[in-house]
Amino acid sequence: MTEYLIRRIIQSVVVLFLITLVTFGLIHAAPGGPTQIFLSPGLSQEAAKIQAHNLGLDRPVYIQYIRWLGDLLQGDLGYTFKNHIPVGKILWPTVGNTIVLMGAAWILSLVIAIPWGIYNSTVEYGFSDQTASFISYVGFAMPTFWFGILLQELFSLRLDWLPLSDMWTMGKEGNLGDLFMHLILPVTVLTLGFLASYVKYARASMLEVLEQDYIRTARAKGVKETRVVFRHALRNALIPIITVLGLDLSILVGGAALTENVFNWPGMGRLFVEMAMSREYSVLMAITIVVAVMVVVGNLIADILYAIVDPRVQLGRRGGNLS
Amino acid sequence: MIAGCSSSNSGGGNTNESTNTSTGTTNTSTTTEPPAAAANEPVDGGTLTVSTFSDIVNVNPIFVQDTASGDAGYFLYSNIYDFDRQGNVAVEPWSLAAELPQISADGKEYVVKLKNTAKWSDGQPVTAQDVKFTFDTIKNPDAGAPGISLVDKVAQIDVVDDYTVKFTMKQVYAPFLNVLVAAVVPAHILKDVPVKELVSNPYGTDPAKTVTNGPWKWSEWKQKQYISFDADPNYWGEKKPHISKIIYKIYADQNTEVQALMKGDVDLTQAIPVTQVEAVKNKGGINVILQPGPQYEYLGFNFKADNFPDKFVPFTGQKTRQAIAYAINRQGMVDNVLKGTGKLMNAPFLPGSWADPADSVVNYDYNVEQAKKLLAEDGWVAGEDGILAKDGHRFSFELQYNSGNSRREQVSAIIQQNLKDVGIEVKPKAIDFSSWVEQNLTPGKYEAILLAWSLNNPDPDGESTFSSKYFPPNGQNQGFYKNEKLDQLWVDGYSTVDQEARKKVYAEVGKEISTDLPYVFLYQYGLPEGIGSRVNYAEEDAPEPTLPYGYFFHIINWWVK
Q: Could you tell me if B194 and B340 lie in one domain?
């Protein structure tokens, strides 16, 4: 297990390095730089040039990359070009805010989806199953921003039950009750999106397990159905679900830019969109790194959990041929 | 310096992507009725919440370039001079200057006298040194200040005494008076900072380190969320602000902003997309000001042969350009796209301003027959595919504009259809704003563009936009338009400080430019402002959309209930 972990960690570092290389190249290949946004066309091109020089933006891309990577390794995410504010100062609060929003939606959807999916696998094509399918279709098909606007119109503008947008009411920062009220609408929108896939995964995974020989054997031996489901089947059915959840960990920080925009949630998705517009490379790179790290860590956690839930995985891995 | 609007926000239906110029004029007509409660006596206290869709960048007046930072500066800094409602330079109780500048008989010296009562928020006096330091820094290329081109005609700045400063110009340059409607920075805080490092100095981005001299102090900046300003208890002015706190709240886009206005979460929104104006009005309790602002949109031609296949410029003929102006249904755009929030224009002077040449310009009514006639006279003949051709070249061009701007999307489609009706093929092309600026606008690489100028101050001087002295990369004449008569007229226009004499020159400019048409001037347009019922002001303090930052006109006198 230790050897396996070390190997995976080394792999992850290499992957992260490649990600930074590719994204840095791509971002800098896109036309339009930060000083172009900062200065209006023609007003003062000389000012733009001087600013670009003062900020080191006129150097070759590879030198900019090496400097950036060097700073990153020392834990320095750099400064914004426009006003020289430390990237971390802008970025970290938004990461926290996104985790609050996405985490709430993620946990809520798991709490609903897994039991529901499992139940549906035992009552295939029943009313509950049909309802879940319907919700899945709606969840997949309905644009989140549109659903969000509908909810705002109804519950906030017309009925005035819930706040329209933002994370806190001005002056009530830190009040958990206030945060809860602000979470309801965006979490509803996001949960619908998550539910759609999770219920289906849970159901499909459980169904697959329930068709296995050992379940049939258990049933034949006269084991009670609840015991078959919860004792024998559940553990195995969870394995593919855990994989999906591990991969989805990155969603927690990657955020949902559209939902954050509609609800004016001060999160990382919204920040990314805004920074992409103004070509703030240092912030964009920092966000990319945070998300990449989460993806890699999520994968790692999924693999570890996988090994814990299903000991066969470890054995296979020792052999080095399961991937 | 006064910043213009150069937002790159793509949200909402009516984002104000435009570029800046120091040309222009102001509108003398007044705005709408103040809210009903205006008859009440002002009360002190309360919070005004203003919405915006972009965060500030840097409030240091030397580097202010974006609208949001300029808005913040409006609360934080006193200007040397201010504009009155007609766009004249004026001394207000909240201006730093004690009187209007004394201009020497030859028009080359401006002596500015400051009030000796003005103080920085750290208690230090505002002095002539601060004025000199600010303008010297803007002039210094190492600072990279965006306003450098506004002060390039200043030869020297001298401190006469603690409260008197003298500007000596290289030549007579009338628009300079408007340049003095500007905030200054505290020399005692910044004089030892190397000029190259000023832009990255925390002054202007850290509330605790930004010493200001306006009615409100900067208390907090929560990036991408809000900025708050508290009335400065030690503000030096005789007139104190009534509103004790201003919150400048940042929304993800204009649609979210408008919803918050309707919900009552914010009291003032500077830009309601025209598509949502009706919904806001129907909500009730919100005063919507529709008067157009200091910006105009145009169809710009390029005259540089390198930009065209076979180096054939289809716009060379004056009659051809006039034909295009006749072929475009501009009134239809104002009625249907702008929903009445715009005014037709034929020259780069805002309608109703002192320099507006009114009847002396050529007006192009929508007239398809006239357009066809002029095109024929200029030698264009319909080809087999119905598209006009001359000397073996089809009349077809690419019309660039920025993506995400729904107003321009609609207008470009109308232009495409209108010109197709007279046999011209238009290929609209939407490009991301940032890329567009870098790759096309700055170097002047395009065939035709749909763009707007947002006028930084009410002066009508347009040399940097239209004179052949200012071809890229040195200036804003991105279409490489050359007209020697106009080149000289712009110089005549700013070479006297006598307004009547200037007015005659601009009448001449209006006539020439509307005949020759480097642009098809489309319309002056507005960003409808929404004001909630909590906000009160007397009629003389009502917002004045035609001025820069006019949506906060005289905000020191407003009050909230």
A: no
What are the extents of the domains in chain A?
15-73, 95-146+195-309
pLDDT single digits (tens) A189-233: 988 888 878 888 888 888 888 788 887 888 888 778 777 777 777
Tokens of B360: 């002396």
Structural domain for B401, as ranges = 295-525
Asked if B337 and B217 sit in the same domain, the reply is no
Rounded to whole angstroms, the Cα distance separating B70 from B87 reads 18
> Does one domain contain both B435 and B353?
yes
Q: Determine, yes or no, domain membership for B443.
A: yes
- Do B300 and B239 reside in the same domain of the chain? no
Structural domain includes residue B532? no
Are B75 and B205 in the same domain?
yes
pLDDT in tens, B190-218: 999 999 889 889 999 999 999 999 999 99
Residue B206 belongs to some domain of the structure: yes
Counting residues of chain A whose pLDDT is more than 70, the rounded percentage is: 87
Please report residues of A whose CB lies closer than 8 A to that of B148: 44, 46-47
Record: contact B253-A261, CB cut-off 8 A = yes
Q: What is the separation of C-alpha B322 from the centre of its chain, rounded to a whole number of angstroms? A: 27
Whether A46 and B141 lie within 8 Å, measured CB to CB: yes
Nearest to B265 among A94, A164, A271 (CB): A164
Cβ-defined contact of B58 to A82 (cutoff 8 Å): yes
**CB of B203 closer than 8 Å to CB of B190:** yes
pTM assigned to the model:
0.85
B277, part of any domain: no
The answer on B110 and B169 residing in a single domain is: yes
Give tens-digit pLDDT for B44-96: 999 999 999 888 989 999 988 888 899 999 999 999 999 999 888 999 999 99
Per the structure, the count of domains in chain B is 2
Of residues B207, B346, B342, B338, the one with CA closest to residue B275 = B338
Compute how many other C-beta atoms are within 10 angstroms of the C-beta atom of residue B27: 26
The ipTM estimated for the assembled molecules is 0.81
CA B532 – CA B69 distance, rounded (Å):
23
User: What is the gyration radius of the CA atoms in chain A, in angstroms?
Assistant: 24
